């Protein structure tokens, strides 16, 4: 089965390269960009969903949580695919070949790619960190629940007389 998927990926890569060097290069690179943003968005969202399940102590969803954690495995591949996007900049962005004088400070090639790669690195690193924290605190992986800092904070609030709500008629 791995050989089959390798062949499918190779055929897709050849089709992409042929399309990127054709007359419809702008359309091919646009499709590449849309797919990159879509799949990267799904990969970034998975650990956030798992984090929400961890914070709300959702016990009903271990299989969904496990799947949500595994989506971040695409993030390193996604970052490499984002680096490849640089080669399609002339087809995607018309201001690369014909600069807009009023926006030259913002829309110049070095600054555009520097901020794009820096923001993507931060955006992709945060779910990776959340994924690591979620896996450490997961009762699924350890066999028993571990106390998180949020659990300790919640326990302190629950047992503190300063934070207990006032009940009508009691002093």
Fill in the keyword field for this structure:
single chain, 171 residues, mainly alpha, 8 helices, 0% strand
Blueprint (SSEs and pairs):
Elements: H1 2-20, H2 25-55, H3 62-70, H4 75-84, H5 89-92, H6 109-137, H7 139-142, H8 149-159
Helix pairs in contact: 2-3, 2-4, 2-6, 4-6
Counting helices, strands and paired strands, the structural category is mainly alpha
Strand residues, percent: under 5%
* Overall pLDDT metric: 80
Radius of gyration (Å): 23 Å
Which of globular, elongated, flat, extended, rod-shaped describes the shape? flat
Helix content: 55-70%
How many beta-strand elements? 0
Span of the ends, CA to CA? 70 Å
How can the largest sheet be summarized?
none
Strand/helix succession: HHHHHHHH
Q: How large is the count of helical segments?
A: 8
Low-confidence stretches: 142-166
Describe this structure in words.
The chain starts with a helix and ends in a 12-residue tail after the last helix. The model is unreliable at 142-166 (pLDDT under 50). The chain is flat, with a radius of gyration of 23 Å. Helix 2 runs antiparallel to helix 4, helix 2 packs parallel to helix 6 and helix 4 (75-84) packs antiparallel against helix 6. The longest helix has 31 residues, at 25-55. The chain has 8 helices and no strands. With 171 residues, the chain is mainly alpha-helical. The chain has a domain at 25-139. 68% of the residues lie in helices and 0% in strands.
């Amino acid at each position: 089965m791995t050989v089959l998927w390798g062949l499918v990926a190779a055929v897709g890569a050849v089709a992409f390269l042929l399309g990127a060097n054709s007359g419809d290069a702008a359309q091919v690179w646009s499709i590449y960009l849309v797919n990159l943003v879509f799949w990267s968005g799904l990969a970034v969202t998975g650990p956030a969903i798992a984090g929400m399940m961890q914070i709300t102590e959702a016990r009903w969803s271990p299989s969904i949580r496990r799947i949500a954690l595994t989506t971040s495995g695409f993030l390193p591949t996604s970052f490499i695919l984002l680096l490849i996007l640089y080669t399609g900049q002339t087809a995607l962005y018309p201001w690369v070949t014909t600069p807009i004088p009023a926006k030259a400070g913002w829309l110049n090639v070095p600054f555009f790619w520097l901020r794009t790669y820096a923001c993507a690195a931060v955006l992709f690193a945060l779910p990776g960190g959340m994924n690591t924290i979620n896996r450490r605190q997961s009762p699924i992986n350890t066999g028993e629940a571990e106390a998180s800092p949020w659990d300790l904070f919640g326990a302190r609030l629950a047992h503190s007389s300063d934070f207990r709500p006032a009940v009508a008629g009691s002093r």
